[in-house]
């Protein structure tokens, strides 16, 4: 394959006595005309190659059947009004609706499909006021993280021309009980502030409707530390305001005050522990992994919230990890993970266990969403073979009723799900989900797609993903590994895959691949790996550490230059997860696995499809550019290394269905081509009705 010319420069840094070459540093400057021309040439080449691949158009037709769907989210109740989003078969973006009462007529609230001619402006978060008469929401150009906060009148649909707040990248509005104001996180948009320093400038402010946002009073100052996040919460009665200072994903401090008081006071200082707080009827409910890797729940009076006065009401479970807690219908709703699948339980506010909520099967469910004093709550459920369903929970009885579900052209009884456990390099037991057709032959020749993440305490439960079915119908196996670094098994699982233990994540992934080969599912040359963001780092490390073990790699919006990552985008906020090359001990670990620096001449790497986004303001796309340049420039690498760049898209990609169809058609056409698989004939598959 003839790639666009890419120059290499003799640039290197001496870090802690080590020479670190960086021949493609010039590709970090996205504003450079040379870099822009290089990006256009790379993307053009990739799209030409992908467009010629057999089966791509039939894949696109099949994805149109699967992606253009009628679906509904779990509703949010405020007053007697219900708010929810809905997707439609003839719309590119989800629309936010509301109705008066559970049976009232449906009314459009936010329809982003008409916000821009090219469809690049998106809805971010949306939060109705407690009486349901106003809505605070964010608009996000290019589906990026940067956002502008707006307020609208629900009944009239009119947007306020005064209540427009820039710097809403981290904004999560918390309405006051009188529905006249909200607290929010504000980030200055001053271009003089270096991008990598901006998180440390986040403030908590109070906005009163109708007033100039530039005059919003400061409630909590910035931390000044770019490696921290600052967030807030407000009790429903408006009496207690909390400020959370997060140092990565492993510890945080909690401050609180009674609204009207001037100063915050410390509730708890995080020492390698996380704390979340809910307040209801002058009681604080504190969820923490302090002294309990699988978490436990404490209760404390607002009159005496000192740590010594906390009373444990939900002890740590020896077999399941407590992920989240909500107060609904005068009860505690507890979301657990047992062997990486969701379990929902109900308990009294004193912690007395009542019942386990009946779920449709082994899968992934959300924490029930409801009000503290209302008997109804709603949650989502899905599994690998069950499209998303919305259930209504009657809290007092525990009754569960189907409220809405997605209908798709699939015969899900053709597929089966297994959970396997395998030993990692150091003997650690790791879980793995496997999805495939029931008539699968374990002959060692099945094309297999292995997915993983392994970081930031993020769990990968068995949830529905419609994009995998064309793969399954061609005899493919889809596998999801619950790697260390994730949150499936509590704090210890996360700790074992961060900082200087990061290599454990890659070892777990390699061991998953070896298990799939050993058990007769596939062979290395028939094994593809896929991951995005931190998962992109995972597959980049897997590709460079064990190139002989993998037959194809799809890497999306990744981190790959681990020596310089903290100088770009939101990188400094990830130092508690990865460490920093500024620290000598961290540098040794980072440089040892940094995929960009691990590309070597004379190594035959597997075919690579790199999927990047041009407006990714979370993980800088320089990672994707530099890595692709390094792989393309490595002698002896005859397998393709392609760079696909999604235009007008952020870290999560474009939120238009048509673009999701194109990106998935490209990804699976690439894999089908590599493995010699046939596409779904005529847009149909064996799973279609």
TrEMBL record:
Catalyzed reaction equations: Hydrolysis of Pro-|-Xaa >> Ala-|-Xaa in oligopeptides
All copies of domain Peptidase S9 prolyl oligopeptidase catalytic, residue ranges: 462-677
Alphabetized Gene3D superfamilies for the sequence: alpha/beta hydrolase, Prolyl oligopeptidase, N-terminal domain
Keyword Isomerase: no
Keyword annotations from UniProtKB, A to Z: Hydrolase, Protease, Serine protease
Uppermost EC category: hydrolase
Location of the Peptidase S9A N-terminal domain: 6-405
InterPro entries in UniProt: AB_hydrolase_fold, Pept_S9_AS, Pept_S9A_N, Peptidase_S9_cat, Peptidase_S9A, Prolyl_oligopep/macrocyclase
EC number: 3.4.21.26
The keyword Cytoplasm is assigned to this record: no
Family that this chain belongs to: Belongs to the peptidase S9A family.
Protein name: prolyl oligopeptidase
Organism: Stigmatella ashevillensis
């Amino acid at each position: 394959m003839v790639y666009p010319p890419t120059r290499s420069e003799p640039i290197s840094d001496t870090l802690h006595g080590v020479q670190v070459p960086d021949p493609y540093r010039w590709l970090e400057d996205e504003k450079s005309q040379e870099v822009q021309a290089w990006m256009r040439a790379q993307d053009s080449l990739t799209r030409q190659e992908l467009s010629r691949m057999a089966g791509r158009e039939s894949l696109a037709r099949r994805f149109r059947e699967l992606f253009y769907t009628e679906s509904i989210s779990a509703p949010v109740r405020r007053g007697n009004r219900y708010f929810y989003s809905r997707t439609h078969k003839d719309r590119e973006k989800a629309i936010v609706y509301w109705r008066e009462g559970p049976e009232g007529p449906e009314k459009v609230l936010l329809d982003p499909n008409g916000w821009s001619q090219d469809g690049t402006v998106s809805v971010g978060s949306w939060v109705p006021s407690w009486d349901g008469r106003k809505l605070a929401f964010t608009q996000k150009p290019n589906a990026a993280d940067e956002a502008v906060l707006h307020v609208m009148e629900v009944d009239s649909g009119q947007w306020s021309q005064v209540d427009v707040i820039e710097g809403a990248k981290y904004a999560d509005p918390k309405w006051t009980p009188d529905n006249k104001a909200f607290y929010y996180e504000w980030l200055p948009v001053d271009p003089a502030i270096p991008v990598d320093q901006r998180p440390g400038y986040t403030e908590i402010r109070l906005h009163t409707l109708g007033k100039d946002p530039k005059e919003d009073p400061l409630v909590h100052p910035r931390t000044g530390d770019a490696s921290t996040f600052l967030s807030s919460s407000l009790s429903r009665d408006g009496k207690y305001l909390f400020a959370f200072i997060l140092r990565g994903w492993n510890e945080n401090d909690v401050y609180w005050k009674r609204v009207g008081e001037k100063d915050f006071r410390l509730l708890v200082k995080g020492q390698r522990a996380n704390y979340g707080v809910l307040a209801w009827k002058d009681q604080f409910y504190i969820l923490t992994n302090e002294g309990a890797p699988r978490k436990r729940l404490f209760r404390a009076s607002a009159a005496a919230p000192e740590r010594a006065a906390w009373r444990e009401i939900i002890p740590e479970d020896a077999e399941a990890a407590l992920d989240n807690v909500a107060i609904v219908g005068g009860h505690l709703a507890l979301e657990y993970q047992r062997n990486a699948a969701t379990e929902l339980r109900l308990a009294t506010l004193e912690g007395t266990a009542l019942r386990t909520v009946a779920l449709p099967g082994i899968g992934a469910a959300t924490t029930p969403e409801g009000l503290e004093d209302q008997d109804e709550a709603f949650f989502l459920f899905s599994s690998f073979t069950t499209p998303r369903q919305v259930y209504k929970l009657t809290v007092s009885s525990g009754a569960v009723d189907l409220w809405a579900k997605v209908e798709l052209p699939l015969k899900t009884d053709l597929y089966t799900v297994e959970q396997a456990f395998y030993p990692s390099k150091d003997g650690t037991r790791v879980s793995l989900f496997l999805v495939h057709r029931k008539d699968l032959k374990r002959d060692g020749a099945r094309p297999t797609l292995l997915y993983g993440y392994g970081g930031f305490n993020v769990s990968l439960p068995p949830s529905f993903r419609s994009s995998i079915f064309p793969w399954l119908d061609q005899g493919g196996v889809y596998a999801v590994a619950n790697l260390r670094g994730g949150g499936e098994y509590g704090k210890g699982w996360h700790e074992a895959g961060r900082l200087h233990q990061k290599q454990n994540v890659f070892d777990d992934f390699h061991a998953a691949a070896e298990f799939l080969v050993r058990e007769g599912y596939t062979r290395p040359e028939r094994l593809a790996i896929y991951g995005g963001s931190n998962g992109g780092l995972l597959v980049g490390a897997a590709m460079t550490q064990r190139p002989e073990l993998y037959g194809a790699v799809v890497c999306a919006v990744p981190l790959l230059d681990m020596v310089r990552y903290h100088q770009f985008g939101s990188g400094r906020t990830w130092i508690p997860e990865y460490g920093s090359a500024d620290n000598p001990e961290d540098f040794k670990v980072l440089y040892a696995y940094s995929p960009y620096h691990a590309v070597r001449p004379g190594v035959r790497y597997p075919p690579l499809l790199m999927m990047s986004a041009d407006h990714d303001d979370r993980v800088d796309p320089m990672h994707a550019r530099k890595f692709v340049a390094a792989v393309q420039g490595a002698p002896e690498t005859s397998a393709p290394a392609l760079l696909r760049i999604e235009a007008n898209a952020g870290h999560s990609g474009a939120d238009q269905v048509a673009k999701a169809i194109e990106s998935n058609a490209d990804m699976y056409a690439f894999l089908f081509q590599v493995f010699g698989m046939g596409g779904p004939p005529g847009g149909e598959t064996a799973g279609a009705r």
